[in-house]
# Entry
Amino acid sequence: MECRIFDNYNDLSDAAAELILGIVERKPEAVLCFATGNSPVGTYKALAGMAKERGTDFSQCFCFGLDEWLGVPPEKSGSCHYLLFDQVFRPLGIKEEQTHLFNGMTTDVTTECRIMNGEIEHVGGIDCMLVGIGLNGHIGFNEPGVDMESGAHEQELHESTLASGQLYFNEPTAIAKGITLGMGQVMNARTLLILANGKSKAEIIHKACEGPVTNDVPASYMQKHRHAVLMIDKEAAAALSK
Ligand code: PGA
# Structure
């Protein structure tokens, strides 16, 4: 795992955008997977600006969404579907047919997950997956205790995930479960880009980077990933010993 520490969030966001652009410029038909949340917002802004400036073409890419709240419709403003189209796909000119996202309104989660797993295999796996880290060490909705080889699955969400999740919605929203790509898919991404910023993430970054590799802290598995790039700001790096 490569760990890069930046002076501030802007520098981190620019570097993350640069990494993604580099992948797409080398491989225009790259398969990408994006998370929502606060951590990547700056990256998405930078990506849109830099792609426009450089004329980077995303028209041959294929994109997956990392996760979704179950029971939340795609058109609702806090849904992962809504946010990915708003922050990533529309600004980059990525069309709906170039994407595959979980449907939070599915009444058949098993089929929804089977289709997602099949689609990822069908396109030959994910070239670059961008994720954040939850305060409890989750990646996507892979909460502590998750099966580390899992594919797409439904997940009961922890209190801390529900509390921070509520902040993405502009009105109180009933959320209890999520649907997510599994840790097996996170570990199989050819590049795993992990972002964290701010002092609230310092403790979990310390555990994930310097603690034991354990499914109590799913993010600790990035230590074993064949190509993980962790980008953090100084505040999130504050509890690291090295
Ligand atoms: P955040 O969320 O980027 O909003 O901090 C990360 C996560 O919970 O996965």
Notes: The two ends are 14 Å apart (CA to CA). The chain has a mean pLDDT of 97. Residues 37-39, 132-134, 138, 164 surround 2-phosphoglycolic acid (CB under 6 Å). The helical segments are 9-26, 41-54, 80-92, 109-122, 159-166, 183-188, 202-210.
